[in-house]
Each structure stands twice: as C-alpha cells, then as structure tokens.
Amino acid sequence: MLLEVNPVGGYFLAADLTGPSLCFGIVDLSLQVVTMQTSKELCSQGDKLYTQLRDGLLRLQDDCKIKSRNVLGVGVATPGLIGSDGTVLEADNLGWHHFNLREHLEKDLSSLVIVQNDSNAAAYGEFQYNSLHEMRIDNMLYVSVDTGVGSGLVFNGQLYRGARGLAGEVGHIKVSSDGLQCTCGRRGCLETVSSAPGMIRDYQQKSGRLIESFYELAFRANSGDVLAASVIREAAEVTGVVIANHINMLNLDAVVLGGGVCMTSDLFIQVIREYAKDTLPELREGLVVRRSSLGSQAGLIGVASLSINYLFPISSDVLFPRYAATNS
C-alpha cells in the first residue's frame, strides 16, 4: 500500500542567513514554501544578529498559532563551520564564534531546532526538489557564490558532512600562493577572488570607480563595460577550474550553481560551464551543470527537509514517493 504525506499535517519554520539579507519562511510537509519574508539587511553581527533572527522566527511562530498551523520544528541555514550539536564554531562574517545557536533558539522558541551550514542546506534542498519535481540526481555538488563561496555535497542521495560535519568549505580552497588575505586568516582562498565582495574590490581597484553591489557590476558588464565583464570572467574561470577538479575526483551527476552572483550573472554561469566541463571525457558524459531551480528558497527547503529527516528517520522515497512511483 502506497502512503503519502499530508502536506498540511505540520509545518517547519525556516531561516536562511546567506547573503546580505535574512530570509524567513514557513514550509509544509510537501516542501512547499507557503510563506516567505526577506529582511532588507542583516543587523550588524553577534548578539544583534541573533536578536534579529530570534524575533523573526517568533513572528512566524505567532503567525502559525493564529492560523492553527502545527509547528513541528525550526531549521536555520547559516554560513560558517557548524558543529553536530548546532554550535556555530566559526562564522567570521556574522561575528559568531563557538556560539551554540541551536541551544539558544530551542530555549527562546521552545521548539526542536536544526542548524545546518547554508550551502549544505541548499544542496539538500536542491536534491529533494529535483527528486520530487524533475529528475533524481544522487551525486551532486552545489556551489553558492554570494558574499562568500560555499558548497554542499550529496553522495548516493545523502548529504555528505565529513568526519566532523564540516565538509564543503570550497571557498577556502587555496587558488593563489600570494593572494589576498581571507576572513579565515589565510591567503589566496577562492572566496577572496570569486565572492561578490572580491569581484567588487577587484573592479574598484582596477577602474578607480566605486560601485555599491554585484548587481551594479553585472549591469555594467551587460551594458558593455569591458573591465566589468573581464572581472566577472576571471572570477568565474577560477571557480570553474575548482569545480572541474571536483568533477574529476568525484564523478558527479550534476553541479548546481546558486547564490546571488550565480542567480544574477549569465556571464558568470556561462564561463563556469565552459571551464567546469574541462574534465576527462568519460566524466563529462551525462554531466549537468545548471543554475539553481530554487534560488533563495533552496536553504529554506533544505533545512525543512533535514528537519523532516530528523523527526522521521526513514527513506525519503517513503516520505516523498512521487519520483519513485513515476520512474520505476
């Protein structure tokens, strides 16, 4: 007998701290985002940022009470190194160091809380979405390029976390022996070259002109600014080489590109596709390199999926049988 999840049988509150803004959502059991809110910008760092996050989740919690929605748990996707107990071990851009985010939120929200690295969450969100709506991809690399550069890996349909749960720090792969200093303290990390701040800095230094955002840089490139296009192309080339190395090593089915930079710039995507397929011919067969299907919702759906897995530790094919039923 085939069983199917009742989509409105429960809901998850979700928050994603990727990029310059803070995104909140309510996700049902079919992984549909039924409510989504985005703040204009992150409030500073440290304690102030935590307060902004907590208050946003409390507002969603109140909204669910008014609408009689049963909240099963809370998921948070955040940049940084995340321990298995929900501690943010290191998130320099957020001002959190050995901060037990899960413990604080569970106390303030009186609810189960799952904390996951933002790129890992987005990778799992893309995997689940594709399994439900498009095609199942069991071996996938997700790369997010935004204020930082991160990645998530799905192997054999499972999120790969590594020995200490810290896998996926592609942004800190060294691409230059004498490069700029990264926020992690090392020099020459991919993030110093390919992130939005890295490209903005590169353009400003070479042009002598100030720009406010990557969106402006991408607009200039599309409008015929040769230098802007060159800066984006150079960053994408380096990123593409790093991705090609992963393909050679891991024999992937797909590479999914997300984050603000990838969702904004067609040129960035185009160049990455060119370089990412510079691999052994046999490893290119059937390989898909594409832009994210979910955009800013990937992290929200990902942490909701991981929360469901935590509460109901059974095969996703049992919980979400649509792909299995139509592709057997």
Mean pLDDT: 89
Helix tally?
A: 13
Q: Which bin fits the share of residues in helices?
A: 40-55%
CATH superfamily of the largest domain: ATPase, nucleotide binding domain
Give the second-level CATH assignment, the architecture of the largest domain: 2-Layer Sandwich
Largest sheet features: 5 strands, mixed
Instruction: Briefly note the structural class of the backbone.
Output: alpha/beta
Strand proportion, as a percent range, falls in 15-25%
Cα gyration radius (Å): 20 Å
CATH topology heading of the largest domain: Nucleotidyltransferase, domain 5
Number of domains: 2
Summarize the structure in words.
- Helix 3 crosses helix 11 and helix 7 runs parallel beside helix 9.
- This protein is α/β, with parallel strands linked by helices and 328 residues long.
- It contains 13 helices and 13 strands.
- Strand 10 (149-155) and strand 11 form a beta hairpin.
- It has a five-stranded mixed sheet with strand order 3-2-1-4-8, with helices on both faces. Strands 11-10-9-12-13 form a five-stranded mixed sheet, with helices on both faces.
- Helix content is 43%, strand content 21%.
Descriptors:
328 residues, alpha/beta, Nucleotidyltransferase, domain 5, 2 domains, 5-stranded mixed β-sheet, 21% strand, globular, disordered C terminus, ROK_cs, ATPase_NBD, ROK, ROK family protein
Provide the fold topology.
Layout: E1 11-16, E2 23-28, E3 33-38, H1 46-66, E4 71-78, E5 81-82, E6 87-91, E7 96-100, H2 101-109, E8 113-117, H3 118-133, E9 140-145, E10 149-155, E11 158-160, H4 190-194, H5 196-207, H6 214-222, H7 226-250, E12 254-258, H8 259-264, H9 266-276, H10 281-284, E13 288-291, H11 298-311, H12 316-319, H13 322-326
Parallel strand pairs: 1-4, 4-8, 9-12, 12-13
Antiparallel strand pairs: 1-2, 2-3, 5-6, 6-7, 9-10, 10-11
